[in-house]
Amino acid sequence: MTLLDGKAAAAELRGRVKERAAAYEAAHGRKPGLAVVMIGEDPASQIYVRNKTKACEEAGIRHFTRFLPATVSQKEAEGVVEGLAADENVHGILVQLPLPRGLDGGALLAKIPPEKDVDGFSALNIGKLSAGEEGTVACTPLGIMRLLERYEIPIEGKRAVVIGRSNIVGKPMAMLLLNANATVTVCHSKTKGLAEICGEADILVAAAGRAKLVTADMVKEGAVVVDVGMNRGEDGKLCGDVDFAGVEKKASYLTPVPGGVGPMTVAALLENTVAAAERSAR
Ligand code: NAD
Fold first, then answer.
1. Is there an atom of ligand 1 within 6 Å of 110 CB?
2. pTM, two decimal places
């Protein structure tokens, strides 16, 4: 089994992004800019936001982080996003999810113009992905595609199974694999016969958020297994959706958790930000 080393692949991708950011700055006299809107004090979100800001600094991307209290009104939050949307130094905007209760996430995200939507959540970007057109793709699935590319894993003609159908991971992941000419099945909480379906996969992406959902008996010999899950195990440690100890004996490639998909997600966000800056200049 070969480990799909997301940390190393992300470092390479961040290096390429840094070169593009420097070229953009040389040509336009300012850095690409990313704005992160963090509402409330969700501890996990605070860590993600810190990681994103640090990654921006290292890549030569200017960051504008706006911390708003959980008590902020819908109108005030929308006003902040509108201000960032109008700021020409800001090329990408993301609103850190989940939002505190009481806020209308859909309405808030709708204030992000599609060209600054570096999370790829807008209806336009989702539509472009469905149509196979160039647009901004959600960071986690994009990062996974970059990881598969890095290890030169063939996708065309393969059977791919995605567990999870969320708008931010499962659905765009399935769409990217389909666009890359895989034959794709999407499974979810109401799927019957999950184990048999997974057993047919040449490429299996697990994004259910259920610790150790995928066990060795569900995995085909030689399959490529990508573990998106981030769960707390019974021992309190971070673990994925895949039973690593069992599955590593059957998979040809497998992502670790941590150190697999997570770092690729951040690197893909930086790539999306630089790409948005480059597009804005055209
Ligand atoms: P979500 O809760 O929005 O969606 C989970 C999906 O899994 C749903 O479609 C549900 O139907 C399906 N599901 C749940 N239980 C299932 C089961 N027993 N069998 C089959 N399908 C089942 O979650 P999400 O936002 O898509 O995230 C999924 C996981 O990926 C979470 O653990 C999350 O923390 C993690 N995640 C990791 C990264 C990263 O960068 N590493 C990024 C995003 C999400």
1. no
2. 0.98
